[in-house]
Amino acid sequence: MSLRPTPDAARSPYAALISAQRRAARLTRTELAARLGVPTHIVVLWEDPRYEGVDLAILRRVARATASELEIAFRPPAAPEPTRPAWKSLLEAS
Q1: How far apart are CA 18 and CA 43, in angstroms?
Q2: What is the pTM of this model?
Q3: How distant, in Å, are the alpha carbons of 1, 31, 49, 51, 76 from that of 4?
Q4: pLDDT in tens, 21-36
Q5: For 37, left (φ over 0), alpha (ψ -120 to 50), or beta?
Q6: Does residue 45 contact residue 12 with C-beta atoms inside 8 Å?
Q7: Higher pLDDT residue, 22 or 77?
Q8: Which residues contact 53 (CB under 8 A, 6 or more apart)?
């Protein structure tokens, strides 16, 4: 189990997904843990964004336990926000 402090950008996105899916299924952490056959503290750990040990197998188990399908997709990166040239900002400030 790895609970190393990580910068916000490096935090696991899986914690929020697991938590949201559990709530969408109207389950408590204890109820989800019982369906998965794990202690409640394991679900708490998986929902902690600092925990880096969530893998595909865990996500599949959570999907089955919440009667949902797991979808994984690759997408092109989002287009960066256009930036204003510094000289335009200076002209507008005048």
Answers
A1: 9
A2: 0.70
A3: 9, 27, 10, 7, 29
A4: 999 999 999 999 999 9
A5: left
A6: no
A7: 22
A8: 1, 2, 45
